[in-house]
Every structure is written in C-alpha cells, then in structure tokens.
Amino acid sequence: MAGNGVTMDFSSIRYTTVSPLARQLFQIGGVVRVFYGRDFISVTKENDLDWQVVKPEILSVITEHFSRGQPLFTEE
C-alpha cells in the first residue's frame, strides 16, 4: 500500500500534501493521525469520540478513494 514496504505517518493535516487520502481522512471530525503500513491503514481518533460515530465515514472515504482508482501518493 505505502509502496515498496515504506510506511508513512501523518500526525497533522499540514503534512498530507503528498497524500490525497490522508488529507480526506483528516477532514473527518475527530481524526488526529493517519498511518500507512505496507498493507494497512491506521486511523487514530480523539479519545472522547466514539468509534460508532466516526468509523462509517472513515470506511466510506477509504473505499471511495480506492474504488475510484486514486493514487495513495501524489508526485509532490
């Protein structure tokens, strides 16, 4: 996923210029960190936010991104 086994950690939206998916995930209220592993995506939320609230939107954003064939990283 992160290309050639590379991981990528986004601790803030300001670091997401290279990843449209990470930028979209940070647009979801309560998302505080996005991490790409070789074959997974980890999303961290604010502690006081219930997963039941944020999980459907996170899954929708990820599914739509890959369904449209969008790249994980840009050329920037």
Query: What is the count of structural domains?
Result: 1
Alpha carbon gap, first and last residue? 18 Å
The helix count comes to: 2
What characterizes the major β-sheet? Answer: 3 strands, antiparallel
CATH third-level topology: Ribosomal Protein S8, Chain: A, domain 1
User: Can you say what the CATH homologous superfamily is?
Assistant: Scaffold protein Nfu/NifU, N-terminal domain
**Gyration radius, rounded:** 12 Å
Give average pLDDT, whole number: 92
Give, in order, the helices and strands: EHEEH
What would CATH call the class?
Answer: Alpha Beta
Strand composition percent: 15-25%
Write the layout of secondary structure elements.
Blueprint: E1 8-10, H1 20-26, E2 31-36, E3 41-45, H2 51-67
Antiparallel strand pairs: 1-2, 2-3
